[in-house]
Specification:
Blueprint: E1 6-11, H1 14-26, E2 31-35, E3 47-51, H2 56-65, H3 71-85
Antiparallel strand pairs: 1-3, 2-3
């Protein structure tokens, strides 16, 4: 899957990888998350994010623009993550 792509960045968790992928997608950049094969960090859930070589500079600009996450974005990602994990909330 990474053939013909270049490494853009690393995300220490799946959640952070999803945020990066969402921001890149909003800019029209397709990115590919690959769980790290480095045995020193693989158990921690680290992901390497890859893009096409032609998208490398635009992707860097997207990530450099604003490193902060708004409260609304955080809530949105947490809700999406909960749906993916089939978490319905605390028991009554």
């Amino acid at each position: 899957m990474t053939e013909g792509t270049v490494r853009l960045t690393m995300a220490p968790t799946n959640f952070e990888a999803e945020i990066i992928l969402e921001r890149l997608a909003e800019a029209g950049i397709q990115a590919f998350p690959i769980k790290s094969q480095d045995p020193r960090v693989a158990m921690l859930g680290q992901f390497d994010i890859f893009v096409k070589p032609s998208d490398l500079e635009p992707a860097r600009k997207v990530l450099d623009e604003d490193q902060s996450i708004s409260e609304d974005e955080l809530v949105k990602f947490e809700e999406e993550d909960a749906k993916r994990r089939h978490i319905t909330g605390p028991p009554d």
